[in-house]
Specification:
Blueprint: E1 2-5, E2 8-11, H1 18-40, H2 45-97, E3 112-117, E4 122-125, E5 144-150, E6 161-170, E7 173-182, H3 184-232, H4 250-299, H5 303-334, E8 342-345, H6 346-355, E9 364-368, E10 373-376, H7 378-395, E11 400-407, E12 412-419, H8 453-463, E13 467-470, E14 478-484
Parallel strand pairs: 9-11
Antiparallel strand pairs: 1-2, 3-4, 3-7, 5-6, 6-7, 8-10, 11-12, 12-14, 13-14
């Protein structure tokens, strides 16, 4: 059974909780609305731009249309009110002086006139209101002017009228003058403008949408060409480039940036393939020699030869181990992991590296600053110094020097490693840092070089925020590493 309560019907069915039933809709409705909104939302940039421009233009034109209609209606109503008020004041003046005729002649712009006394009797009226009762039931108690709009005029049917009611004092008491002016011109103008706007605004919005659609499509055509070209580029077609439009706008800059990215990808691919080929070649040589030595030892089981064969096999094994360690370190440097960020005294690292080489074929002269704290790790910095000293000792004739000083102007630690060897030609000063690169006078693998030492040293310096370059020297080679000092 249901009982009325507050204009609604509430259920009395046992076991039903109205609050829970009604509570389902608010939880489900927003999710459905979001789902519908997501399905109706434009997917492409072209459609979103067209919808946005059309919406903005439609809102602007709608606001302008309402403002125009309001200004037009207000202006026409003020003109009609001025005519009615002028006629009402003139008639009130006649009534106050006692010169009021029974039949009143409306002036220009006035449709009807009626004069009513305080008891509601009609004292005078225009010809179209003769014999009509009082138009207004209200009886003002004091003189004044009241302005109003009547939806249905008494003399013009369903037309609106602007009516001015002027109350004045006469010898027989208060007298009210009603003067009305038809708003047919204002209504006609409103209808005409409303019809014109109802047709013109949609056409204009449609035109804006069409123009925006075409212009956006024309503007995004280079983007689609770039997308199509990139979609066709595979790992074997990195030499291809996207077309660059001649507009010199954001899209042209995007195409230039995309081509620069493809240049880097192509260079990285070439570098990777070259690295793999060089690594395979470098690994093949010691493995081949090691296999040959083992085959010789197996074919000639002479104990007198085993010492020499085992010694050679051990050298090749060490060479393979060093090469594998270098490749592993390069792989770690290429991963892009954050570099170590500890405080390390580079002076201690350099002194320890030089101290361990006192018995080497080429001694190391030391000139090291008391302290040079940089950011990094002891392992990386030791590898940097060791690789530079190994390279210098491998090519030096009889002297190697290591110098560590502080450059206060640039707030860097400057590490120099020099030797008195043949030096590095100016044309090869960048090539020596490429992986597996050996100059013509140092291509012998018997000297122990893998062609990765300087490449690893430069990668370490770069990862620690520094640099490694080959600079001018009176004799031999001079490699200079610059690392930022620890400001903390």
């Amino acid at each position: 059974m249901a009982e009325p309560h507050g204009g609604r019907v509430t259920s009395k069915t046992p076991g039903r909780v109205p609050g829970r039933v009604r509570g389902r809709v608010p939880r489900q409705l927003p999710a459905r609305l979001r789902h519908v909104a997501q399905r109706l939302r434009p997917r492409s940039v072209r459609a979103r731009a067209t919808l946005g421009a059309s919406t903005v233009v439609a809102l602007a034109l709608g606001a302008a249309s309402f403002a125009l209609l309001g200004m037009l209606d207000g202006n026409l109503m003020r003109n009609a009110q001025a005519d009615a008020e002028r006629q009402a004041l003139a008639t009130a003046g006649l009534a106050a002086t006692g010169r009021l005729d029974t039949v009143l002649t409306p002036g220009r712009g006035t449709d009807f006139l009626q004069v009513i006394d305080a008891r509601g009797h009609v004292l005078a009226a225009s010809p179209n209101l003769l014999g009509r009762p009082a138009l207004s039931p209200s009886r003002p108690g004091k003189p004044g002017t009241v302005r109003d709009t009547w939806k249905e005029g008494p003399a013009r049917g369903g037309r609106r009228h602007r009516v001015v009611q002027v109350t004045t004092v006469t010898g027989e008491g208060l007298v009210t003058v009603l003067a009305g002016t038809s708003l047919r011109e204002a209504d006609a103008a409103d209808d005409f403008v409303t019809g014109a706007l109802a047709v013109g605004v949609p056409l204009l919005v449609l035109t804006v949408a069409l123009v925006t659609w075409r212009v956006t499509g024309w503007a995004l055509r280079p983007v689609e060409a770039i997308r199509a070209e990139v979609a066709e580029i595979s790992d074997r077609d990195l030499h291809r480039r996207v077309p660059v439009p001649h507009s010199q706008d954001e899209i042209a800059r995007l195409a230039v940036t995309m081509n620069s990215t493809l240049d880097r990808l192509e260079a990285a691919g070439i570098r990777q393939r070259r690295f793999i080929a060089d690594a395979s070649h470098e690994l093949r040589s010691p493995i081949t020699v090691l296999r040959t030595q083992l085959e010789v030892a197996q074919a000639h089981p002479d104990p007198a030869l085993w010492g020499e064969l085992v010694s050679g096999a051990l050298e090749d094994t060490v060479r393979l181990q060093d090469l594998a360690a270098d490749l592993l370190l390069l792989a770690r440097l290429d991963t892009g992991e954050p570099p170590p960020d500890g405080a390390v005294d580079l002076a201690d690292v350099a002194r320890e590296a030089a101290r361990s080489r006192r018995q080497d074929r080429v001694p190391v002269a030391v000139e090291i600053a008391p302290e040079a704290v940089v950011r990094g790790s002891t392992l990386w910095l030791t590898r940097l110094v060791t690789n530079l000293l190994d390279n210098a000792q491998r090519h030096a004739d009889g002297w190697v020097g290591i110098v560590l000083r502080l450059d206060e102007a640039t707030n860097t630690a400057v590490l120099e490693v020099r030797d008195d060897g043949p030096g590095i030609p100016a044309a090869d000063r960048e090539r020596v840092f490429e992986r597996f690169t050996r100059l013509d006078d140092a291509r012998s693998r018997d000297e122990g070089g893998t062609g990765l030492g300087l490449a690893i040293a430069r990668d370490i310096a770069g990862r620690l925020g520094g640099s490694l370059t080959v600079e001018d020297a009176p004799t031999g080679a001079r490699l200079v590493a610059r690392l930022p000092l620890d400001t903390a």
